[in-house]
Amino acid sequence: MSVTLLRPATKLTHRGALLLVAAAEEAARAMGVPQCIAVVDEGCNLVAFLRMDGARVLSIESATRKAMTAAATGKPTGGIAPDKALLLAEATSGRMTNLLGGVPLIADGQVVGGIGVGSGTGEQDLEVAQAAVAAFMRAQAP
């Protein structure tokens, strides 16, 4: 009986991260809401970031944490039960968040990263993140 010691992995490239940032920026401009946009890989490492002119400085951190949370959980942020969200924040020293605006990036059935958007309302942040993920998915289609 052979034991598999390695598993194949699909990885997000810097070009993919930049496509996400550009698509999110376009959606934010169309909305008229300057945003902070963070893209992380599957290990929650920052790959690309943009703070649009006029976006809130403190949203740099929240956008990054939204991206990390989406990548780590494989689920959009904002839907975790309040009691579990508090535990999640406590267990990660506040590095993970339940604020709307984080969406995982999934390719070939694998989580390859996450995008986090912050500086608008939670609903605006989520809309911009979803627009970027939709552009990412279209770009992957054969």
UniProtKB/TrEMBL annotation:
InterPro entries named in the record: GlcG_carb_metab_protein, PduO/GlcC-like, PduO/GlcC-like_sf
Coiled coil (residue ranges): none
Name under which the protein is recorded: Glcg protein
Species of the source: Rhodoplanes roseus
